[in-house]
Write a structure and sequence with these properties.
The protein is of the alpha/beta class and 115 residues long. It has one domain. Helix content is 43%, strand content 17%. The protein has a four-stranded parallel beta sheet with strand order 2-3-1-4, with helices on one face. The longest helix has 18 residues. It starts with a strand and ends with a strand. The mean pLDDT is 95.
Length: 115
């Protein structure tokens, strides 16, 4: 499976998955508290990463079937509203999905940002 990242406002890529707290799949979304704290400068990138990692660890335990459903897709584009090149949870999720794929013997290719 191939994992890309991109913006919600980008083209309609095959397997586009909105992972925003505003309009996306809540299994993979951060919390509003995290997003607002980061935007206000009250949460560093490292702290955000740590919070999101813990949140996704819980998500995986509670929604493992959904994680494996995404990993069964031939390709997915993890999409949110952040601009390309900015710190964003979609790149963290791509890494986490790759790790879950490896743990479940699912070949995963991280393909980077879609233009």
């Amino acid at each position: 499976m191939k994992i890309y990242t991109g913006t919600v406002r980008g083209p309609r890529w095959i397997g586009k998955l909105d992972i925003t707290v505003k309009s996306g799949d809540k299994v993979f979304a951060p919390t509003w508290e995290m997003v607002l704290a980061y935007k206000a400068g009250r949460l560093s990138e490292a702290e955000y990463r740590e919070h999101y990692f813990r949140l996704m660890r819980t998500s995986y335990r509670e929604h493992k079937a959904r994680w494996l459903e995404v990993l069964a897709m031939p390709e997915v584009t993890l999409a949110c509203y952040c601009r390309p090149g900015m710190f964003c949870h979609r790149t963290i999720l791509a890494e986490l999905l790759a790790a879950v794929g490896k743990a479940n013997n699912i070949p995963v290719e991280l393909c980077g940002e879609r233009a």
